[in-house]
From TrEMBL:
Residue stretches in coiled coil: none
Keywords: Nucleotidyltransferase, RNA-directed DNA polymerase, Transferase
Protein name in the entry: Reverse transcriptase domain-containing protein
InterPro entries found in the cross-reference section: Retrotrans_gag_dom
Domain Retrotransposon gag: 1-70
A GO MF label: RNA-directed DNA polymerase activity
UniProt keyword annotation of Ribonucleoprotein present: no
Species whose genome carries this gene: Tanacetum cinerariifolium (Dalmatian daisy)
Length: 195
């Protein structure tokens, strides 16, 4: 039967270890740091084609790809979808991804050439600026180290909080034994005994 033929073909060309490795590559897919959206999408589709019997649903494939993207590309897809891309139907989400991939391909080719244009003059300027920044960084580090050593050898005096007496009878800014409300100095012989 057809199912037997498919099974024999898969077992011959896709042994279990290879299938496991390919499925892991699909599941662990991540957009590379310098990879454009289009390049990431093409690489992801190549992984899916390399393992036609991966068994992942369209929704699982979309979820894996979407969550592997950088935040800027996720935001771009959400904006194109008019909300969260993963809340849309798989077919609609795939259409958005394919359209974004086609648009970005033409734009990234236009943007790539000016970015890579760098002559000897600008690279020497960059080297000078880098050297100047490194010198300033060294000067600041030296100054901070000197200040730290000075603080460690001559610590600032400890802060001492003053104690202000407050009358417990009336709440005034005088000791209780001088309170006019209580008759003040009524018991001068006991005033030093109260702590």
């Amino acid at each position: 039967t057809w199912d037997d033929l498919v099974s024999k073909f898969i077992n011959e060309f896709f042994p279990p270890s290879r299938t496991t490795n390919l499925r892991n590559e699909i599941s662990n897919f991540q957009q590379k740091l310098d990879e454009s959206f289009h390049e990431a999408w093409e690489r992801y589709k190549d992984l899916l084609r390399a393992c036609p019997h991966h068994g992942f649903t369209e929704l699982h494939q979309l979820d894996t790809f979407y969550n592997a993207l950088n935040l800027a590309d996720q935001d771009s897809l959400n904006a194109a979808a008019g909300g969260n891309l993963l809340e849309k139907s798989p077919q609609y989400a795939l259409t958005i991804i394919e359209n974004k991939s086609k648009v970005r391909t033409s734009q990234s080719k236009l943007i790539a050439s000016p970015v890579n244009a760098c002559d000897n003059h600008s690279s020497s300027e960059l080297a000078k600026l880098t050297h100047a920044v490194n010198q300033q960084n060294s000067a600041v580090t030296t100054a901070m180290t000197a200040m730290l050593k000075q603080l460690q050898s001559n610590p600032p005096p400890a802060q001492v909080k003053s104690v202000e007496e407050i009358c417990v009878t009336c709440g005034g800014a005088h000791p209780y034994y001088q309170c006019l409300t209580a008759g003040g100095n009524t018991f001068p012989e006991y005033r030093d005994n109260i702590q």
